[in-house]
Automatic annotation (TrEMBL):
It comes from Colwellia hornerae. This is Acetylornithine aminotransferase. PANTHER family: AMINOTRANSFERASE CLASS III, SUCCINYLORNITHINE TRANSAMINASE. Binds 1 pyridoxal phosphate per subunit. InterPro entries: Ac/SucOrn_transaminase_bac (IPR017652), AcOrn/SuccOrn_fam (IPR004636), Aminotrans_3 (IPR005814), Aminotrans_3_PPA_site (IPR049704), Class-III_PLP-dep_AT (IPR050103), PyrdxlP-dep_Trfase (IPR015424), PyrdxlP-dep_Trfase_major (IPR015421), PyrdxlP-dep_Trfase_small (IPR015422). It is an enzyme of class 2 (transferase). Pyridoxal 5'-phosphate binds at G107, A108, F140, D225, E226, V227, Q228, T283. The keyword NAD does not apply. Keywords: Amino-acid biosynthesis, Aminotransferase, Arginine biosynthesis, Cytoplasm, Pyridoxal phosphate, Transferase.
């Protein structure tokens, strides 16, 4: 028998490790781009679980896939393969540059696998000296010790003792800085084809093409972290398609499962062979339940209607944000790509992104931040236009209060 007791925000402080500071709002159900909390207050979801809920909440295709697979088989182990994993892998391979797929449970794990593969490839093919990994300041690649060290934000990686070595950082969009530290000792360059946590920064075409060229020149691997940009978020199935630069390894998670935890590292046959039997693994990676849901999400997003819809909805968002700004003058720039949008606060409102998030929540709209100066939006890729308009109307009320 289940014992029922009050489940409220106070309970969080009693029973949870204090590494998060969640809001007092506890959502209990969602449908499409709206969620309701314990008091049955309605919110429009412009956060998307941080770019995860690519089809909103309780999308029939995902619910159907989950229920269907729940009655079949949930977990095996990698001693055996399973049908949903093979079907999903085949679809990913058919629609990307990649030939081979490795499944994990999260973006960090997919990135961990990518970095381990790069180091193993370098050792196998080039010998012991080729170990340098280069990434970018303000980049974010996950929270495992290897990925958080490769991520370019010291606040996340400091304070845990000695870090994994031979990892260097340069500024995003600074090709000369990259050129200056690359050599034949460079094993890999890891980059987001649009920086997410770092502030919704798009690469210049010259920069992203230059990164590819430098990798080719120094025989280094190019790893695209598409954990946040992948599966339709930018209006292309993967962002590399939009910048027209093909990586050697790509990581995908977040939207891949539409809310179910799953990640994947994808690459070529030539590189994949270096992760031979026993070199890497994951107990839950590729479990049938996760793969069944991810297959439904992938199929639903990977259509011209949804992908073109993302581009159209992005225009509507940006126009709406610009209209709000014309009245209140709180943003100095609206940036990003597709439905990964950042509203950068003016000097007057520096450091106040969280205030905007809290004010928006009070008006019934969920948003995100990217650092202290940027409000981030990552809604469902199929959010109805009426919800965009209503959410922006609520957001405008929040802006109006703060701009007084």
């Amino acid at each position: 028998m289940t014992n029922h007791f009050p489940v409220d925000r106070k309970l969080f402080d009693d029973v949870m490790v204090p590494n998060y500071a969640p809001s007092a709002v506890i959502p209990v159900r969602g449908k499409g781009s709206r969620v309701w909390d314990q008091q049955d207050r309605e919110f429009i979801d412009f956060a998307g679980g941080i770019a995860v809920n690519c089809l909103g909440h309780c999308h029939p295709a995902l619910v159907g896939a989950l229920k269907d697979q729940a009655d079949k088989i949930w977990h095996l182990s990698n001693v055996m393969t399973n049908e949903p994993a093979l079907r999903l892998a085949k679809k990913i391979v058919d629609h990307t540059f990649a030939d081979k797929v490795y499944f994990a449970n999260s973006g960090a794990e997919a990135n961990e696998a990518a970095l381990k593969l790069a180091r193993r490839w370098a050792l196998d093919v080039h010998g012991a000296g080729k170990t340098q990994i280069i990434a970018f300041n303000q980049g974010f690649h996950g929270r495992t010790f290897f990925t958080v060290t490769v991520g370019g934000q010291k606040a996340y990686s400091d304070g845990f003792g000695p870090k994994p070595g031979d990892i260097d950082h340069v500024d995003y969009n600074d090709l000369e800085a990259l050129k200056a530290i690359m050599s034949d000792k460079t094993c890999a360059v890891m980059i987001e084809p649009l920086q997410g946590e770092g502030g919704l920064v798009s690469p210049t075409q010259e920069f992203i093409e230059g990164v590819r060229e430098l990798c080719d020149q120094h025989n280094a691997l190019l790893i695209f972290d598409e954990v946040q940009t992948g599966v339709g978020r930018t209006g292309d199935l993967y962002a590399y398609m939009g910048v027209n630069v093909v990586p050697d390894i790509l990581t995908t998670a977040k939207a891949l499962g539409g809310g179910f935890p799953i990640g994947a590292m994808i690459t070529t046959t030539e590189l994949a062979k270096h992760l031979k039997i026993g070199t890497h693994g994951s107990t839950y990676g590729g479990n049938p339940l996760g793969c069944a849901v991810a297959e439904a999400a992938f199929d639903t997003v990977n259509t011209p209607e949804v992908l073109n819809g993302v581009k159209e909805k992005a225009k509507r968002y940006v126009a709406g944000l610009n209209a709000i700004n014309a009245k209140y003058n709180v943003f100095k720039e609206i940036r990003g790509k597709g439905l990964l949008i950042g509203a950068v606060l003016t000097e007057q409102y520096q450091g106040k992104a969280k205030d905007f998030l809290n004010a928006a929540l009070e008006e019934g709209v969920m948003t995100l931040v990217a650092g202290a100066n940027i409000i981030r939006f990552a809604p469902s890729l199929v959010i109805p236009d009426t919800d965009i308009d209503e959410g922006l109307a609520r957001f405008e009320k929040a802006v109006a209060k703060l701009a007084k």
